[in-house]
């Protein structure tokens, strides 16, 4: 299993796999061939590169031989640097399988055909996993969750680079694009060989091996960060900024001389961090951990005191992105303890930290941003009140008598979970009003008690109350309560990275029977069509009782 896969990666890196050229019309398309794979995989690779359906491809060698689905690739005696002739027309849209010609049986369909049929029937790609190529679960989980960022996935389709690019970071972007394409069309688990190889070439840290020569387990959060940074540097920095970049204002105040205030500065980060090990103040809720990392202290020179002094640092969010990436700081550096006989090394915090499905960031924003968000929040409140009133009137009840128990939050135990409509969740950015609220759409978990081992799994929101669990090549379906149970505290999967998508309120005209709220009705909303809007409420006790957000932190925290 793992050792064999790793040897395959090593063989590729040393040139054991061959590079050939597909001459397709006036284009020369570079292609890497794994001689251990069958012809069906080769044709699927070509489909990912050219969009020519596998059954429409005609591949000719100089000898006159053609490659079909049943061709034994090893028997062709292929050599590095060879050129093939490729004939075929790319499909403009996903080609439909004609169900009227003859009855279809599952055993008669290839995996690619099954993927086409599934997309034809459901309008979405069939969920498939990624094969573990030797402790690569950290990468597999990140790729599956990143793919949930649909704006980024769609943009990568337009990337023109190739994974044969000598710039390995640009090659890595091409490998991500091609892997996403294979996940959409393959119909079965994908073997991401090019992706793993280019990642290790671009970032040698991920190519570390143990004393036995086996690949080491790596940090998923560090992998995630490198993937985002690479795409920002070599592809579309503007999009990455829009999707992930958080802008903060940072203020320093001298604790010994409070009147000495350092002018506010702006700091940028692509993530928030949830502090878990807070010394004498343990963290039980995500929001508390985020709030903790928004404040801190640093030692710097004080011009007023003419010596070093301790300054209190306070952060506030100045600009929110389309997605909030939250890193649970579970790993830290533990010093050696002579009396206990322990060595220095990375350790893991297993503490149970609850996190909400709906995360509200408003309280942790700057005053200026809070005012901007108030427009959307007022519109949200107005729509909620209108919808509640209509519902009660349709039942013959007095809205004034029923308003308090339905809208109030005094008795949190009685509050029911209200789902966000998928149409609202997937509303394109800019088509609604921002509220400062975010909906959980992806999770990366780590299972195990040690930082240098264990197993990573990706979980992504699918629709309604359903999520998909990507455990390498195995894909299964789970429910929202299963996701919220990934809070830690034992040997089960525990949250390490959370991905939240921004929620917007779709504006609608004010009901004739209700009075408009001035802040919620700018002039550009005067003639907007009336839309149905599902109200947003917190969805767990953790969300009801805590609320906060924060700045990103380092992967390894040195513990004193």
Strand coverage percent: 15-25%
Distance between the termini: 41 Å
Quaternary organisation: single chain
Shape: globular
Query: What's the average pLDDT?
Result: 81
Structural classification: alpha+beta
Helix percent reads 25-40%
Number of helices: 15
Uncertain segments of ≥5 residues (pLDDT<50)?
11-16, 406-416, 514-560
How many individual β-strands?
20
Taking the sheet with the most strands, its summary is: 8 strands, mixed
The whole-angstrom Rg is: 27 Å
Question: What are its keywords?
Answer:
15 helices, five-stranded mixed beta sheet, eight-stranded mixed beta sheet, disordered C terminus, 29% helix, globular, 560 residues, alpha+beta
SSE topology sketch:
Elements: H1 2-13, E1 18-24, E2 27-33, H2 39-50, E3 58-60, E4 66-67, E5 83-87, H3 111-122, H4 137-146, H5 150-156, H6 168-185, H7 193-202, H8 220-234, H9 237-244, E6 246-254, E7 261-269, E8 272-275, H10 286-292, E9 295-302, E10 307-319, E11 323-329, E12 331-334, E13 345-348, E14 358-360, H11 367-394, H12 399-407, H13 422-425, E15 433-447, E16 455-463, E17 466-471, E18 474-479, H14 480-484, E19 494-505, H15 541-545, E20 557-558
Parallel strand pairs: 1-5, 8-11, 12-20
Antiparallel strand pairs: 1-2, 3-4, 3-5, 6-7, 6-10, 9-10, 11-19, 12-13, 14-15, 15-16, 15-19, 16-17, 17-18
Helix pairs in contact: 2-6, 4-8, 6-7, 6-8, 8-9, 11-12
